[in-house]
Design goal:
- This protein is an alpha/beta fold.
- It has a single domain, classed as 3-Layer(aba) Sandwich (Rossmann fold), CATH 3.40.50.720.
- Helix content is 43%, strand content 17%.
- The chain contains 15 helices and 15 strands.
- A seven-stranded parallel beta sheet has the order 3-2-1-4-5-7-12, sandwiched between helices.
- Helix 6 runs parallel beside helix 7 and helix 12 packs across helix 13.
- The protein starts with a strand and ends in a 10-residue tail after the last helix.
- The protein binds NADP nicotinamide-adenine-dinucleotide phosphate.
- NADP nicotinamide-adenine-dinucleotide phosphate (NAP) binds next to strand 2 and helix 9.
Length: 320
């Protein structure tokens, strides 16, 4: 197939492109920066500069590429696009990403329609954001937590918008768990090493995790199978913060995390950190395994964290 990866230079795109190429596909991939065209070529793709918020540019890029499939991996979370992480104000930190999930999604879908693209997959999110009144582990039918009235609402609404439009267009939404792997958790690990990433309250909230390589393999399968509908792309072991956080700290060679009460965490880090660590509801991957025939390299974050954070840094093609 000919596959257009919008946002090919990001943490996920950098693992997805080589996988697609290895499986015999032709890949065209986008960046907003001409300086990263070389990186895309090194990964095996034909690079194109495209701003996802510019409808005409998106239409031109897709019409020129004439792909069979489109993967929407555009976010703006890195330092260069979003500035320093600001967990207390996710509405500010994720402002660019939210635009890419609303306007950017609409632009891609309109361009895909015009270019006759038959297969569409896009990023969703399924980590801690299940229904807080539901069970600890939830399937694709879950009513996602939109955290109404908080600074997280606008971002969770933007994801809902993107999901709805992609599903209306007959595409697949891949709700990735919290991504880890090369370049995906550097900020978190740095804070953990400085003991600035504490456990909140009882730490009983659940999250789902996924290694970038497992996320990439699920994405390639969804593309090849012209999948439609929602799929949770998470590992086999939903985990409580009180289990995964000290384990991650240990793997990263850091001291155990501090503990802070809910009131203090809410004041310092905002509502999302509190919900994630105390009320989080995670997700099941049964549907993706059953319907896509997906096999994970890292079925649990226990193996993945150990492999990723204990080993000496692996050579990686970096964005910059
Ligand atoms: N993706 C997630 O779900 C997730 C979750 C948690 C944390 N993070 C954090 O995000 C950080 C970096 O992630 P990332 O490397 O994937 O970077 P990113 O800044 O989120 O960029 C992802 C991709 O989207 C592209 N992009 C950005 N703005 C765009 C625009 N206006 N139009 C079209 N494309 C656009 C980027 O292109 P260029 O940059 O090449 O222009 C890149 O290819 C990591 O530190 C990771 O920890 C990501």
């Amino acid at each position: 197939m000919r596959v257009f990866v919008a946002g090919g230079s990001g943490v996920l795109g950098r693992r997805l492109i080589p996988r697609l190429v290895e499986r015999g596909h032709d890949v065209v991939a986008s960046t907003t920066s001409a300086a990263k065209l070389r990186l895309l070529e090194e990964l095996g793709a034909e690079g194109v500069v495209m701003n996802g918020l510019d409808a005409d540019a998106v239409r031109r890029a897709l019409t020129a590429a004439r792909p069979d499939a489109l993967a929407h991996e555009m976010t703006a979370i890195s330092l260069s696009h979003a500035g320093k992480p600001d967990i207390k104000h996710p509405d500010r930190w994720f402002a660019g990403t939210n635009r890419l999930r609303t306007t950017g999604t609409d632009n891609l879908l309109a361009a895909a329609r015009a270019a006759g693209v038959g297969t569409i997959v896009a990023q969703g999110y399924a980590s801690w954001n299940g229904d807080p009144d539901g069970p600890a582990v939830q399937d694709e039918q879950a009513t996602l937590n939109l955290m109404p009235g908080t600074a997280s609402e606008v971002g969770l609404e933007a994801l809902r918008h993107s999901e709805e439009r992609v599903l209306d267009a007959g595409g697949a939404v891949l709700r990735y768990g919290a991504l880890y792997g090369p370049g995906a958790t550097d900020d978190q690990v740095e804070l953990i090493r400085k003991r600035q990433y504490p456990l909140v309250g009882n730490g009983a909230g659940y999250s789902s995790w996924i290694h970038l390589d497992d996320a990439a393999s699920a994405t390639a399968l969804a593309i090849e199978q012209h999948a439609a509908g929602v799929f949770n792309i998470v590992d086999d072991e939903p985990a409580q913060a009180r289990d995964w956080l000290p384990y991650l700290a240990e793997c990263a060679g850091a001291k155990p995390p501090m503990r802070v009460p809910v009131w203090l965490a809410r004041m310092l880090a905002g509502d999302q950190a509190v919900v994630m660590m105390t009320e989080g509801r995670a997700f099941s991957n049964a549907k993706a395994k059953r319907e896509l025939g997906w096999h994970l390299i890292y079925p649990s974050w226990r193996q993945g964290f150990r492999a990723e954070f204990s080993a000496p840094a692996r050579p990686e093609v970096r964005a910059s």
